[in-house]
Amino acid sequence: MSGLTEPRSEAEWSRRAVINVVSVLTSHASSLTLIGAHAVMLRTADLDAPFAPTSDGDLGVTPGLVGDVPSIENLLTDAGYAHRTTARPGLWGRHPYVDRLGNTGYREKIDLLAPHGLSGTTSRSRRGVPALQPTHGKLAVGNAIGIELAAFNRSPMTITDFADPNTRAQVHVAEIPALIVAKGAKVGERLGEPRKGPIRDKDLGDLWRLMACAEPEPAAALISQYAGHPLIGADVRLATTWTRDVLEDLASTERARRSLEGVVDPAEIDRVFSVWRGSFTV
To answer: Do residue 155 and residue 203 come from a single domain?
Structure first.
């Protein structure tokens, strides 16, 4: 995409990364689902509250919809992307730079993540995707618990480049119920296992956004439909339990308030959390 306006912020670079990678992986388009912050932005765009910045893009990859050829590894490396680390699969970057401390970073950052329940591994500690490794490489895609529902609860949307609005791509985007479970699982897992990473106020702000744009009963009903799924049911139940724990933790409301301080009435944040608390019983 030569001749485009160069992004100036991390959010602009990450949006550009999503659009570029969707284009690079067009032969596997049916397997890709936008998750994470950019999906939250699209699904809550009508909400009258500014978005928190984000530095990378997240794409879910459904292994059963990925063709054997061409190789994801080869497609991305041929397009100039490199593994940001070899310690964890699925982390890709392009346009490297060296910061003031001498560390290498990347302007474009993308995370490719398969749902754990569809990845071919039963181990929670194994981050690779055995189902894809024979033809796509050990580091091409990682896996995560909590994004299973996004492989089913999704629909196509147009995503627009922030820096150059004439640049667009169409991609499947996770719908709100799937995003609520994914965000809740991310925070809930860290509540129980702090070594998994810090809990960020932004994640609770995103969770509030999603809940503010949906009703709990239909979302809970949809989630429960997949609780008995033969492949993803166990992970959906675990992710839902983590989400329930997050909603019942009063500190979650406080974190959401901090994230949205000055832009959303704290009473409205409390109201939404209260409405959703107790919704998930899977």
So the answer is: no
Query: Tens digits of per-residue pLDDT, 178-188?
Result: 999 999 999 99
One domain, residues 170 and 103: yes
Q: Which tokens is 187 given?
A: 């925070």
Instruction: Please tell me the predicted confidence (pLDDT) of residue 242.
Output: 97
Residues 6+ apart with CB under 8 A from 236: 117, 148, 149, 181, 223, 226, 227, 229, 282
Is 168:159 a contact under the CB 8 Å cutoff? Answer: yes
Residue pLDDT, tens place only, 93-128: 999 999 999 999 999 999 999 999 999 998 887 889
- Give the residue carrying structure tokens 């000055």: 262
Where do we find the tokens 């956004």?
209
Look at residues 51, 246, 73 and name the one whose alpha carbon lies nearest to residue 146: 246
> Of 174, 207, 236, which closes a domain?
174
